[in-house]
Automatic annotation (TrEMBL):
Domain Phosphate acetyl/butaryl transferase: 81-297
Coiled coil segments of this chain: none
Name by which UniProt lists this protein: Phosphate acetyltransferase/phosphate butyryltransferase
PANTHER family recorded: PHOSPHATE ACETYLTRANSFERASE
InterPro entries, per database record: P_Ac_Bu_trans (IPR012147), Phos_Acetyltrans/Butyryltrans (IPR050500), PTA_PTB (IPR002505)
MF-aspect GO terms: acyltransferase activity
Membership in a protein family: Belongs to the phosphate acetyltransferase and butyryltransferase family.
Alphabetized Pfam families for the sequence: PTA_PTB
Residue stretches spanning the membrane: none
Gene3D superfamilies in the cross-refs: Isopropylmalate Dehydrogenase
Keywords: Acyltransferase, Transferase
Amino acid sequence: MEPIRSFDQLTSHLKSLNKRKRIAVVCANDPNTEYAIARSLEEGIAEFLMIGDSAVLEKYPTLKKYPQYVRTVHIEDSDEAAREAVRIVREGGADILMKGIINTDNLLHAILDKEKGLLPKGKILTHLAVMQIPTYDKLLFFSDAAVIPRPTLQQRIEMIWYAIHTCRHFGIEQPRISLIHCTEKVSAKFPHSLDYVNIVELAEAGEFGDVIIDGPLDVKTSCEKTSGDIKGIASPINGEADVLIFPNIESGNAFYKAVSLFAYADMAGLLQGPVCPVVLPSRSDSGLSKYYSIAMACLTCKE
């Protein structure tokens, strides 16, 4: 499989598979979610179970064009709708879970329920996003901009494993993973930079398989070879990072918002750790971003 380097290539690849994934959507009561669902139906990559207020859902004219691929379950209470969607996924009735206009905390409460939720015991919940930046020649993954405030060493290791598995779905056989810091120097003043040393040692010992991991590096050195050359930094990343692992949620989230706003980057993102891909967009995300997140979920979910 050739590496998928753009969202257009992702859509083309999914269409070539000619298989619709089953997606349970909680409270799809907004135009941007409607757009994402309608485009997924038109592209032939998904079918939907809409869980929420059917009086609202049935007003969407686009959805009526595909009655064989859209079903609704009428539940007015959003918390109850979230629990029902999680139950359906647990019992094999859907491949993917998607958040509509419901508050994130409410949906996470159902996902993280120890008895009836979707996160297996011992698994770490985190978030992995991917962006297409007009000035970068391939897709760029990054974590964690949404869930873990300050990752521990073990959480960082799990974040890296999630990123590796996702990259392989995208056809990236040897992902280049950069451990992000404000400088290339290791310092006890920044404990995460000490974690980076341990992670690089694990990678060099083959712990992560066929992967290139280096850090600490800043974002520019990770993604632009010239920057590293000027600073005299020799790194196997070579300015061609596939994945950026941020030190904390503040830096990851600031990067996410800044690049989408000022660099006009297109975005997609999923929760990592649950038994199925979970599309968890911000309620203010564009319809296109939500569609790309659906496409990412369709590519990475288990057969």
